[in-house]
């Protein structure tokens, strides 16, 4: 008994010591966070977690070697996939027919299927030209991509009905014969969709909301707005042209216009590769406003009530052009088809699908000379980062399942896509299978770094498991170290993979790091489980592209062109 009594003070003292130690330990940690914002505390925690994860990854450093640089300009035609990648939405029913490229908002399904329904009705009406039965064939293809096919000469249909006249002007300026068959198949406009609260705020300050007020508000950091890629998107190209002409209505490429665009673009937080990507960002609350066609706006239930649509730029009235040396017979088919589509019955069908909704709207500016449009796109490419340098790390899957054609296409897509990366940006390169290899440390993308990048890509070999999240953690560590030296840089990660992770860390292990560092992670899936990749990209509103061996080169080129 006596022995037990003597032990109690020792136990009590031990407990007290532990409690005191705990109080001191947590007190020190608590006071070390005093005066820090929640974001700073989160960043400190993320730094520690990243270091811990990084130490548990087997990271190798590859021997660097130079590769041969291809100095030829980008050949769009060679990167385009076969035209069969773009679906025929209405087949011709006769031997004498015209093929028409159509923009997706009218050659899709459901509310986006107006032109398909009109084309099927036209074919069923048994039209004739010169006593011979004729018909139309519709191919669903985005206007920017369609223009690439036509300008490159890789595939030229008989006709095209893009969303707006800007693409027609660009095709004509490129030397392709064009003849406008109809200025308007169905009415539509594009505009800025803003939250009701932000709309009311800007109207109170500027009197009304138009592109001049919007660009001014963005330049003053009063409005957070995103828009789409002007190389691929009709709405994006329209917005770019309208913004430049707002800065200088007499010359949209003048020094005054360029200066205004630079100030404006500095405060644009988001350039989307697709409308879907931009809409998802808007749903997350990251944006006050974004661009969208009216027909899409009225058909999206999420946008009812809390948003306001403000039209801008040229109208999106789906003009119809004959292309190249189209015969008189085919021109007659197109004229009959246009007249058929313009009947009251089919215009009413369009209204039911959201078209013809803002017929009173007139364009703020006259049509743009097609020769100026490529120059405007080039200006956007050079100035879109608002003079803020970009640092990107490319992460390539070289696991065993990538062996053969997938790896060959990955190499080809990177070697061709690297021409879009920009000499003022910084680039690093990582590959992974079961382990992670730093093939190229981050460096300015000058001729030497470009040669090293090409050499790193050429040297890739497939084999092993798939430790995707280990590789992403390594890329984040490289970017964290770079941002410590250059805090103004804009960090990006591009992940190219064909499948699910089966080794190393999980998404749950690094999700908090991705959120804390706010690094957009763009994912490109090669015949992959795209949902797994989308879950990575969606964390910071980046795009996830589903590609296969046939179209990955073109899709990656477009992605790099937008983001780099």
Main beta-sheet annotation: 7 strands, mixed
Characterize the overall form: globular
Q: Name the strands of the widest sheet in spatial order.
A: 1-16-15-14-17-18-19
Low-confidence stretches: 1-41
- Count of discrete alpha- or pi-helical segments spanning 4 or more residues: 22
Strand content: 15-25%
Structural class: alpha/beta
Distance between the termini: 79 Å
Average of pLDDT: 85
Count the E strands. 19
Radius of gyration: 28 Å
Please give the share of residues in helix.
40-55%
Describe the overall structure.
The protein starts with a helix and ends with a helix. 43% of the residues are buried. Helix 9 packs across helix 11 (255-266) and helix 10 crosses helix 11 (255-266). The protein is globular, with a radius of gyration of 28 Å. The chain has 564 residues and is α/β, with parallel strands linked by helices. 45% of the residues lie in helices and 18% in strands. Mean pLDDT is 85; it is low at 1-41. The strands form three sheets. The chain has a seven-stranded mixed beta sheet with strand order 1-16-15-14-17-18-19, sandwiched between helices.
């Amino acid at each position: 008994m006596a022995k037990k009594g003597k032990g109690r003070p020792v136990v009590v003292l031990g407990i007290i010591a532990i409690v005191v130690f705990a109080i001191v330990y947590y007190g020190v940690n608590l006071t070390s966070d005093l005066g820090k914002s929640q974001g700073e505390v989160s960043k400190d925690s993320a730094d520690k977690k990243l270091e811990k994860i990084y130490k548990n990854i087997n990271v190798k450093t590859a021997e660097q070697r130079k590769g041969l640089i291809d100095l030829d300009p980008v050949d769009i035609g060679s990167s385009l996939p076969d035209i069969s990648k773009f679906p025929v939405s209405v087949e011709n029913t006769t031997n004498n027919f015209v093929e028409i490229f159509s923009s997706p908002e009218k050659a899709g399904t459901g509310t986006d299927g107006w032109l398909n329904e009109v084309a099927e009705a036209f074919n069923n009406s048994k039209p004739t030209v010169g006593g011979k039965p004729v018909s139309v064939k519709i191919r669903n293809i985005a206007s920017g991509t369609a223009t690439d096919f036509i300008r490159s000469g890789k595939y030229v249909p008989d006709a095209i009905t893009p969303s707006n006249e800007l693409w027609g002007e660009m095709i004509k300026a490129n030397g392709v014969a064009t003849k406008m068959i109809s200025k308007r198949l169905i009415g539509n406009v594009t505009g800025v969709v803003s939250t009701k609260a932000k709309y009311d705020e800007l109207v109170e300050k500027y009197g009304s909301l138009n592109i001049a007020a919007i660009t001014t508000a963005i330049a003053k950091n009063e409005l957070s707005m995103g828009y789409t890629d002007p190389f691929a998107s009709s709405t994006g190209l329209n917005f770019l042209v309208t913004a430049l002409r707002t800065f200088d209505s007499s010359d949209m490429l003048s020094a005054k216009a360029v200066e205004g665009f630079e100030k404006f673009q500095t405060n644009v937080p988001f350039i989307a590769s697709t409308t879907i990507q931009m809409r998802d960002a808007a749903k997350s609350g990251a944006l006050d406003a974004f661009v969208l066609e009216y027909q899409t706006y009225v058909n999206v239930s999420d946008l009812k009530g809390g948003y306001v649509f403000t039209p801008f730029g040229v109208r999106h009235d789906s003009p119809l052009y004959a292309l190249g040396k189209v015969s008189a017979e085919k021109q007659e088919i197109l004229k009959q088809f246009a007249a058929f589509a313009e009947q009251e019955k089919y215009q009413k069908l369009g209204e039911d699908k959201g078209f013809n909704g803002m017929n009173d709207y007139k364009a703020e500016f006259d049509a743009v000379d097609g020769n100026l449009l490529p120059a405007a796109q080039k200006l956007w490419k050079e100035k879109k980062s608002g003079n803020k340098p970009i640092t990107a790390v490319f992460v390539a899957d070289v696991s065993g399942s990538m062996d053969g054609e997938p790896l060959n296409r990955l190499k080809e897509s990177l070697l061709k896509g690297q021409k879009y990366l920009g000499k003022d940006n910084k680039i690093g390169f990582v590959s992974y299978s079961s382990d992670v290899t730093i093939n190229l440390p981050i460096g300015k993308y000058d001729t030497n770094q470009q040669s090293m990048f090409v050499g790193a890509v050429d040297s890739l070999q497939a084999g092993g498991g798939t430790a995707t999240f280990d590789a992403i953690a390594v890329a984040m560590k490289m970017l964290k170290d770079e941002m410590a030296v250059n805090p103004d840089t804009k960090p990006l990660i591009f992940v190219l993979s064909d499948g699910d992770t089966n080794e190393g860390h999980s998404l749950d292990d690094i999700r908090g790091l991705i959120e804390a560092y706010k690094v957009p992670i763009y994912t490109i899936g090669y015949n992959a489980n795209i949902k797994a990749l989308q879950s990575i990209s969606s964390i910071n509103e980046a795009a996830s592209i589903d590609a296969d061996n046939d179209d990955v080169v073109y899709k990656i080129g477009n992605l790099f062109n937008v983001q780099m």
